[in-house]
User: Fold CMP/dCMP-type deaminase domain-containing protein from Ceratopteris richardii.
Amino acid sequence: MVLEYTDPTAHAEVTAIREACKKLGRIELSDCEMYASCEPCPMCFGAIHLSRIKRLVYGAQAEAAIAIGFDDFIADAIRGTSHYQKPNLEIKRADGNVAAIAEKVFKDTQAKFQMY
Assistant:
């Protein structure tokens, strides 16, 4: 689906979650289960966690996907099994007024919005 949709986030798990949320009309899927061919990548695992899916069953371990060319450097970085290094990507928290504005948006929204 990634190549078909020209979308690097179009992993099967994320696509299934999007479709389930749309069909059910909600973002909380605590009465749902997910079955995946392989251990989810960090992005997919994050989506599974945020959607509150109650059960995840997968077949192959991540190493099987890595063996056929999937890049799992983020999972390795999270696990602490390798040195995270991605060329041309700088990650930095904004400071000063920009950070204060972002923090205020979340604080102001907190009283009005509860996801679950």
About this structure: The chain has a mean pLDDT of 83.
